[in-house]
Protein: Acetamidase/formamidase
Organism: Allonocardiopsis opalescens
Amino acid sequence: MGTSYALEPDDRTLRGHFSPDFPPVLSVDPGDSVRVRTLDAWWSTGPYLGDDVAERPRVPQYREGYGHALTGPIEVRGAQPGMVLEVRVDAVVPDVWGTCALAQPELNARYGLPPAGTVHDWTLDPVAMTGRNQHGHTVGLRPFLGIMGMPPPEPGLHPTFPPRRHGGNLDCKDLVAGSTLYLPVPVEGALFSVGDGHAAQGDGEIGGTAIECPMRRVDLRLDLRDDWALDTPVAHTPSGWLAFGLAEDLDTATARALDAMFALIGRLHEVSRADAVMLASVAVDLRITQIVNGVVGVHAVLPPGAIR
């Protein structure tokens, strides 16, 4: 049994970028657990009933030019480039409010909407797992963290918006409690951060936001693997095994997701690449992760029990 820690979003732990230069706010051993609380993506202090998310009240730590509110970074002792960080998601509990907004003018133009965005303010029930907006629409909740990841190895500040091979803004709705995310480690110590809580989201995140919400509690167990060479995120979720492809276009992202899935099937079932391709053709589904972060995402899904 490892040691358990807790992190709150405060002056010491909040960051608006990824960077290998940030000192860790917590150091843990492989196998330790961390309970994390996160802000919503906009660094909000609470719900705001209005039409402009940019005008919502924010915590004092927010500065112009910041991206998502990240809690971290967490050092995992012994982590080295070439290893795999194993992130087991044991619990994800949202707060009681959230927001969905058409906050990107280029997306509004894509859908033939005026530049000023529409905002849906949601009241969330973490017990019943439902959300209700100001217009009376109700949806089921399936909370997850949009961002779990590590910084690129290059020095300096890196934006939080694009997903990367070592995680970050994956925005994959399947990374719910009960999932384990596997990420290639890019820097010594891993320097893992989390944020961008989503109470509910559809595949693609087509409007640019999910129900963006703070998370009251996220329980994570962090471990290291040195027996697996990964080049892109892979996850084991209640929906099955996922292999991610990330690129500037969907065709390239799809090819990368499939390459990772073929390798995964070969590892799981001890078959050749040719056999993995044929098995994938009858057992694997392709899904669009998100199309709104500049770098788009596709994930290949091997459902539970699809290959026996």
